[in-house]
Amino acid sequence: AQSVTQLGSHVSVSEGALVLLRCNYSSSVPPYLFWYVQYPNQGLQLLLKYTTGATLVKGINGFEAEFKKSETSFHLTKPSAHMSDAAEYFCAVSDRGSSYKLIFGSGTRLLVRP
Amino acid sequence: DAGITQSPRHKVTETGTPVTLRCHQTENHRYMYWYRQDPGHGLRLIHYSYGVKDTDKGEVSDGYSVSRSKTEDFLLTLESATSSQTSVYFCAISDPGQGLFSPLPYEQYFGPGTRLTVT
After folding, report:
1. How far apart are CA A111 and CA A14, in angstroms?
2. I need a labelling partner for A86 at 20 to 30 A (CA). Which of A10, A38, A44, B35 fits?
3. Dihedral angle sign, alpha carbons of residues B51, B55, B59, B65
4. What backbone phi and psi angles, to 5 degrees, belong to A4?
């Protein structure tokens, strides 16, 4: 069964530093890939997604992610962290044969230090 | 923002009592989902619906039932609540958009959540 692994339940960076949140999936067939963000006491909001084509995907709020098939990874990055980026981030995948269902990673909480 | 509301937003109930959570959408999306969110587990799918009266189980369906009598409403029922069902529950919606056999993924849009505490 498909699974998603997010390395690091908590990541702490200084304001202005690079943000790197890691996500690996298990499927040998590349799935659809998503990153969602959850601000405190809110629902999840789609940051970006990879379906096909260009492997570097740009999302909202300056985030981007790169699909690497050889590494089965879809890591999320942002060149310069802002205090407003503090939130929980979830990687999710859906199989191409059943793309109506998402499988989520366990989440990474991003802390941004002043 | 997608028009999704959840009610109630907060609820405290006692073990053994029945509880029903409601998800209401104004987007006319075909698919609706119920997830639970627990620390260290991300979101886990409880049940989903692919149309009126059409539902199926997710990975953590034990102890939960659902009903969908109208496109816009999806109800989650805990027949006899237990402390292990203390969680935050999220509803989500999605739609094929380009047709049933669209090759593109169904983007899911999430409601604000319901925090349920079972004492």
Report:
1. 8
2. B35
3. positive
4. -130, 135
| Closest chain B CA to residue A48 | B107
DSSP per residue, A37-98: EE-TTS-EEEEEEE-SS-SEEE-GGG-EEEEEGGGTEEEEEESS--GGG-EEEEEEEE-TTS
* CA–CA gap between residue A6 and residue A23 (Å, rounded): 5
**For residue A94, which residues of chain B lie inside 8 Å, CB to CB?**
105-106
d(CA B15, CA A17): 47
Type of residue at B28: N
Q: Which helix (H) or strand (E) holds B33?
A: strand B31-38
Residues of A in Cβ contact (< 8 Å) with B94: 100
> For B20-28, what is the mean pLDDT?
95
Answer for the pair A101, A1: CB distance below 8 angstroms, yes or no. Answer: no
